[in-house]
Amino acid sequence: MPLYLAWFTLHHDYYEFRFDELESLAIIYGVDKHELWSEVSKNTSVGDNKETIRPEITDNGSPFIWVELPNDNVALQILGRSILIRGFIEVWSSGSNYNSVKSNLELPEIKNNYINRYLNESLEFSWYVRAIRKKLSRQEQVDRMNFFRFLFTGKEKVNLENPSIILVIFEEWKNMKTHEDDFSKINDNCNKLKNFQETTQSKNCELRRVYMGRAVGIQNWHNIKKKTPWWFKYTLNERPILGPTTLDNELSFIMCNIGKVKKNSIIFDPFCGTGGTLIAASHLGALCFGSDLDIRVLNGWSCSYINPHLIKSGILDESSSRSIFSNFIYYKLPLPEIIRMDVSSSILRYPFIDAIICDPPYGIRASSRTTKIEVMDESFNDITHFPTSKGFGYIHSVENIIYDMLIFASKYLVNNGRIVFLLPVILNEISTSIDKLYKDWNNIYNIEYHHLQTLGGGLGRLLICMTSKSKNYVQFTSK
Question: Which portions of this protein are annotated as coiled-coil regions (predicted)?
Answer without folding.
Answer: none
